[in-house]
Design a protein that fits this description.
Elements lengths: L7 E7 L3 E8 L2 E8 L5 H15 L7 E7 L2 H8 L5 E6 L5 H4 L24 E4 L2 E2 L5 E3 L3 H13 L4 E5 L8 H13 L4 E4 H4 L5 H32 L5 E4 L5 E3 H6 L7 H16 L5 E6 L4 E7 L2 E2 L1 E2 L2 E3 L11 E3 L3 E2 L2 E3 L5 E5 L5 E7 L18 H7 L17 H13 L5 H26 L8 E5 L3 H12 L3 E4 L6 H8 L3 E11 L5 H23 L4 E11 L6 E5 L8 H17 L8 E12 L14 E2 L5 E6 L2 E9 L7 E4 L2 E4 L4 E4 L3 E5 L5 E5 L3
Parallel strand pairs: 1-4, 4-11, 5-6, 5-9, 9-10, 13-23, 23-24, 29-32, 31-33
Antiparallel strand pairs: 1-2, 2-3, 7-8, 11-12, 13-14, 14-15, 14-20, 16-19, 17-18, 21-22, 24-36, 25-28, 26-27, 26-28, 30-31, 32-35, 33-34, 35-36
Helix pairs in contact: 1-7, 2-7, 4-5, 9-14, 10-11, 10-12, 11-12, 12-13
């Protein structure tokens, strides 16, 4: 039955292994999960969209909105498969990208390997110009240098150019003039200005962000253009919005200009999904746990809002070493991402130690059980051998898994451990569970938070299989598996607001702050953000949030302080000091007497009003469900029979005890002995340790 174009909204997420699509229309929901097509990502997207439309008896013309998130920009940075890029910078600063912050992220590694800049030194070209930190022009821009730089870049065949001048965050005039000249001299080359991508102090981070944006811009523009044209050709005439790393949505035009803001867009959608589910269940503080085919992502949600940050590191040389990657100054949902997904490869090292990840078999060739040429055993192979996954029901039964092949691969790995295939599989599961639990503990400690007392929202194709083990290891007594958990990030896209953040550095002591000047600057930032948000908002009501990063003078790091949306006027200094001291005391338990606060960077976010999901109404009665279907699963106690439930057959109020398996098209939930599950009013499966 056709549901009507006006209500049909579709979210699509490209992951490292699977591409997910979710369609919501007329009160119904349809989902699809297909293997990611890395050589032509749009093919997987179009296949997933076609699948959900067919399931809903709709056509592309019925779509009112498509929201998309992709790992394409992230992968290009990690794999160094972006455009040939040049950097035009202030004379004397061409080596900023190589010098970095002049510190070693591992003091005891004598063979430390620093990440190579995205732009080789020969293509980092200096020009004569100089602007002071207060915005005064100390040395005019020498345009002859730009002509020489353009000729050299053209001869080198560059496809993109980043322009990064010293202190352009304070006065962008020279960068803008350079862009005018370069656009005329290099008409087919994409140009990125650091003063537009990251108008903040600290030139290394600003240059790094600008170069990363330029590096992925041609690739992303081409991909988004192909996808847009293919959707139009199929009959989809609706808006296409992109998910941002900060948890908001933006237009295709903005995504083409600033593709670096799409990095981590999929995981951001997952955090939005977790926060939405928590709100439905009346939970304020939860742990978001997303385990897909390639990685696991862990995020803290406090007071119903995912934690965010203004910086992110991508393409780490040492995957878990902070400081070993390329810094990006973009708004991002703050999370820890580790190489612990269903496709993570297990191997035994020379010392006989079993390790899992961080490298993944992805979708090409995929785990051994996929039968696509994979030879190294993975987490999915281990779960299959342990009996946790039905080889005939994986991905809704759309393609079978080869149990015998997985058993052989794990048997080979087990030889070095003195274990048979099931023993090796159990070892793989324990290693990956502890890896994820350790990451969750460290992430909470780094933020000064605790995990105890939180619920855990789990989603992604592999998370419900490992949720109970992770929860037990970190001291969490309940985990929640929402409806459509296997495609949670794509659902999160449909819950996200249209939003955009603009930031600008202005270092000023509060004692010297002029309220009228501050109000004028914040108003200008609001106008910039509204220009980007309004075209995508569709007339929806907009809200504004303001923040400042502040510190005591002489400190090396700042804290983020929420500001009122109204103007400050003459009381700016007093109001800001009170807000800063309250935030500082909350973070550190005290303030510093007689120390002078200063503000560093100011930001404004304009967004549509976030959707308020109605609170789930619980069923009046609990019905204890039973099933005759069982499957043996290998546990620490040996082979144990598990009751098998089908998620589609469960309704609100249904309750059952472990050991049990709950199967659905995109995932399976493992409920060990000692746990009990109950279906909430919104369809979520609430699993409690020792619950009744």
């Amino acid at each position: 039955m056709r549901k009507g174009r006006s209500a049909a909204r579709l979210g699509c997420d490209i992951g490292g292994t699977f591409t997910d699509a979710v369609l919501e229309a007329g009160g119904g929901r349809w989902t699809a999960k297909v293997l990611t097509t890395h050589t032509a990502p749009e093919e997987g997207v179009l296949a997933a969209i076609a699948e959900v439309l067919a399931a809903a008896s709709l056509t592309h013309a019925d779509l009112a909105l498509v929201i998309h998130g992709t790992t394409l920009a992230t992968n290009a940075l990690i794999e160094r498969k972006g455009a040939r890029t040049g950097l035009v910078t202030t004379a004397g600063f061409r080596d900023v990208l190589a010098i970095r912050l002049e510190h070693r992220f591992d003091l005891y590694d004598l063979g430390i390997e620093q990440p190579k800049p995205l732009v080789e030194r020969a293509l980092r070209l200096p020009v004569q110009e100089r602007i002071a930190a207060d915005g005064r022009v100390l040395l005019p821009l020498k345009e002859e240098d730009l002509h020489r730089a353009a000729a050299a870049l053209s001869a080198a065949g560059v496809e993109a150019v980043a322009v990064g001048f010293l202190h352009s965050w304070r006065n962008p005039a020279h960068e803008r003039r350079a862009a005018e000249l370069l656009a005329a001299l290099l008409p087919s080359v994409a140009i990125t200005l650091s003063s537009e991508v990251a108008p903040e102090m600290r030139e290394y981070e600003r240059f790094s962000t600008a170069v990363a944006n330029a590096y992925v811009q041609p690739l992303m523009a081409a991909y988004l253009g192909r996808l847009e044209q293919r959707l139009l050709a199929a009959g989809a005439c609706c808006p296409l919005l992109m998910m941002l790393s900060g948890g908001g949505l933006t237009t295709l035009e903005t995504a083409r200009r600033f593709p670096v803001r799409l990095v981590e867009s999929g995981p951001a959608g997952g955090a939005v999904f977790a926060a939405s589910v928590a709100a439905e269940l009346g939970l304020a503080d939860v742990l978001s746990f997303d385990m897909g085919g390639t990685t696991a992502k862990i995020c803290l949600v406090d007071d119903g809002v995912p934690q965010t940050a203004r910086g992110f590191e991508v393409a780490r040389v040492y995957r878990f070493k902070k400081g070993s990657g390329l810094p990006l100054r973009i708004p991002v949902v703050e999370m820890v991402e580790i190489g612990a997904g269903g496709g993570s490869i297990a191997r035994v090292d020379r010392l006989g130690r079993l390790g899992v990840g961080p490298d993944s078999a992805g979708s090409e060739p995929g785990p051994v059980a996929y039968g696509r040429g994979g030879a190294a055993p993975t987490v999915t192979d281990a779960d299959l051998v342990l009996g946790r996954i039905d080889p005939r029901g994986f991905a809704g039964g759309r393609f079978p898994l080869y149990l015998d092949a997985a058993r052989v691969a794990l048997g080979h790995a087990g030889v070095a451990l003195g274990l048979d295939a099931p023993g090796a599989a159990a070892g793989v599961a324990r290693v990956v569970d502890e890896t994820m639990a350790a990451a969750a503990r460290v992430h909470a400690l780094e933020g000064g938070k605790t995990l105890r007392g939180r619920g855990m929202i789990v989603f992604g194709g592999a998370a419900p299989l490992h949720a109970a083990a992770v929860a037990e290891r970190v001291g969490i007594d309940a985990f929640i598996v929402p409806e459509a958990a296997g495609v949670g990030s794509a659902v999160g896209f449909l819950r996200a607001p249209v939003a955009y953040e603009i930031a600008r550095s202005w270092q000023v002591k509060l004692a010297a702050l002029e309220g009228r000047k501050l109000d004028a600057m914040l108003a200008a930032l609001t106008t910039e953000a509204r220009v980007i948000v309004v075209p995508a908002a569709g007339g929806a009501k907009l809200i504004e949030r303001r923040f400042a990063t502040m510190r005591y003078q002489g400190q090396g790091h700042e804290i983020t302080v929420a500001l009122p949306a109204r103007g400050f006027g003459a009381r700016a200094a007093a109001v800001l000091r009170a807000l800063f001291e309250a935030a500082y005391a909350k973070a550190y338990g005290r303030i510093v007497p007689n120390a002078e606060p200063e503000a560093m960077t100011w930001s404004v976010t304009v967004s549509t009003v976030p959707q308020r999901r109605p609170r789930a109404t619980d069923a009046a009665k609990t019905r204890h469900r039973r099933t005759r279907a069982t499957r043996e699963v290998m546990t620490s106690e040996g082979l144990v029979g598990h009751a098998v439930f089908h998620r589609a057959d469960l309704t609100a109020g249904d309750s059952f005890a472990g050991p049990a398996l709950v199967e659905e098209n995109e995932t399976t939930t493992l409920l060990p002995a000692g746990w009990r599950a109950r279906v909430a009013g919104n369809g979520a499966l609430i699993c409690r340790r020792g619950g009744r």
